[in-house]
Amino acid sequence: MSNRVYVGNVNFRTTEEGLRDLFSEYGEVVAVKMISDRDTGRYRGFSFVEMATEEQANAAVAALNGTEVDERPLKISIAHDREPR
């Protein structure tokens, strides 16, 4: 498995610090990556959060999936490696 978590349906007002604070309740947050459009630089509404361990990532997914943050229910799951193009 993985210790990277996909966070979807994120409000455009949500900050990296806000996600870090939310996930830190479930363990050590190693990194937060907010994905932006290559051409416009505008945030695309999803992020990846890397936790220190797989157990912490699983705990965060179980606890936070569907949680409403900034008026939007988050869609959270374990991140999978990207398929080669």
Question: Layout of SSEs?
Answer:
Elements: E1 4-8, H1 16-24, E2 29-36, E3 43-51, H2 54-64, E4 68-69, E5 72-73, E6 75-78
Structure in a nutshell:
The chain is of the alpha+beta class and 85 residues long. It contains 2 helices and 6 strands.
Could you name the CATH homologous superfamily? RRM (RNA recognition motif) domain
| Helix proportion range | 10-25%
Q: List how many beta strands DSSP finds.
A: 6
| Unreliable spans | none
Number of helices: 2
CATH architectural arrangement: 2-Layer Sandwich
Query: What is the overall shape?
Result: globular
Our measurement of the CA-to-CA distance between the termini, rounded to an integer number of angstroms, reads 22 Å
Structural class: alpha+beta
Which sequence of strands runs across the widest sheet? 2-3-1-6
Q: What kind of sheet is the major sheet?
A: 4 strands, antiparallel
What's the helix-strand series? Answer: EHEEHEEE
Q: What share of the residues does DSSP label as strand, in percent? A: 35-45%
CATH class: Alpha Beta
How many structural domains are formed by the residues? 1
Provide mean pLDDT, rounded: 94
Radius of gyration: 12 Å
CATH topology: Alpha-Beta Plaits
